Amino acid sequence: MSFETSQASLRSNDLFDLQQDTILGTHFQKRNNADGKDYSSEYIDSLLAKEFTSLTVQEWSKTYEEIHGVSDCVDETPAFVENCLSQIDDELSRISDKAAYDMAMQQDKAYVTDDKFRLMFLRATGFDPRKAAVRLVAFLEGKLRFFGMETLTRQLQLSDLDADDLSCLKAGHLQLLPVRDRSGRPVELETFHDESFKVATNRLRACIFLWCMMTEDEENQKRGVVIVAMHMGGVDWSRLDTEMVRELPRLDKWSPVRISALHLCTDHPVTSFLWRTMMLGVIHETRVRHRLHFGTRTEIKYSLLGYGIPVDVFPISDRGVIKRTA
Question: Looking at the chain, which terminus has fewer C-beta neighbours within 10 angstroms, N or C?
Fold first, then answer.
């Protein structure tokens, strides 16, 4: 991918962010139209449809294979990896606004320039040096924002989470399945309940911690993670946390692990609308790798089976009760 194409993709993501803010703002100010009709649904659908139609045949084929868990990893030959790593410094030098990166370089240069650290971001971006540099800088900015200076140049630890973050993590609404999908990718099940966190930051920090832990396994870096997000029933707009809806999908822009497939599951049209609105906040590569599953829990499970997801180990009962793990 050329520098110009990468720039266009980044600008496109900014425009989607703006669209998401506009649509959310409209619905939180005026949640129900006089006739009960949702006038934004068709508009959101048209935005998402354009993402799919913009793909080349090769890109569509690769995306289809990844979503269905039948794709191969990038062939990381030594020469190929060395060439990509050599380009990152050039790309980083072109980024002018990188305060957290500069702080990290002063704090521990060896950590920031370590090949294993940088390779993590190359894998997360399909070995695009430009995107890898942007994501690396954004990762350090996000880490600084959510966890502070003391964690900037080291792996996150459980002790970096406060009591409320831990309570959110232990509530069981963010869980890695004990079995991988058919292509060997980790599967994260996310369910959504306001009672699982005090403030949005608790949920966000718990999610960041879990994603960072996944990067300790190189296979996860290479293959990415499959996320199954499930919310059965409607949405109480009066209790919905706007920061959560806005910020959670935007973690995708700087996560150190790539989302290779995203499955959004619900049985309610309002929740379906919310899922699609949240999709405007993720990056292009994730938008075209998402699928919406609408129906009962049983119907959704049968649908997910077609994508190689081990639904028989879901830690959730047919009544929606979460099975907590230690």
Answer: C
Which two tokens mark 132? 């890898």
CB atoms within 10 A of CB 150: 10
> Residues, the chain, total?
326
Closest to 246 (Cα-Cα) out of 293, 213, 201, 194: 201
With beta carbons less than 8 A apart as the criterion, state whether 196 and 166 touch: no
How many domains, the chain? 2
E strand or H helix that includes residue 294: strand 290-294
Assigned domain for 321 exists: no
The single residue listed with the structure tokens 């497939």 is 261
In a domain, 326, yes or no: no
The CA distance from 277 to 249, in Å, is: 10
Domain membership of residue 139 as a residue range: 3-43+73-151
* pLDDT, tens digit, 9 for 90 and up, residues 6-51: 444 544 556 566 666 666 666 555 444 444 445 467 777 777 788 8
Asked if residue 181 has pLDDT above 60, the reply is: yes
- Whichever domain contains 256, its CATH number is 3.40.525.10
Query: What b/e sequence results for 65-94 when a residue is b if at least 16 CB atoms lie within 10 Å of its CB, and e otherwise?
Result: ebbbbebeeeeeeeeebeebbebbeebbee
